Amino acid sequence: MRILDLSLTGFRNYESFQCAFDPGVNLIVGQNAQGKTNLLEAICYLSRGSAFRTRREAELIRFGADFAELCATVDSYGREQQLRAVMFAGRRPRQLWLSGVRKNSREDLDGVLNTVLFCPEDLLVLKKGAAERRKLLDDALCQLRPRYALALEEYRRLLAQKAAVLRERIDRPEMLELIPDYNERMAQTGAIIVTTRAKYLRQLELRAAAHHQAFSGGSETLTLSYQTVSSVTDPAAPAAEVYTQLKEHQVSHYRAELESMQCLSGPHKDDFEAALNGLPMKAFASQGQTRTAAISLKLAERDLFEADTGELPVLLLDDVLSELDPGRQDFVLNRIQSGQVFITCCEQEKVTEIGKTIRIENGAIMT
Question: Exposed/middle/buried for 309, CB within 10 Å: 0-12, 13-18, 19+?
Answer without folding.
Answer: middle
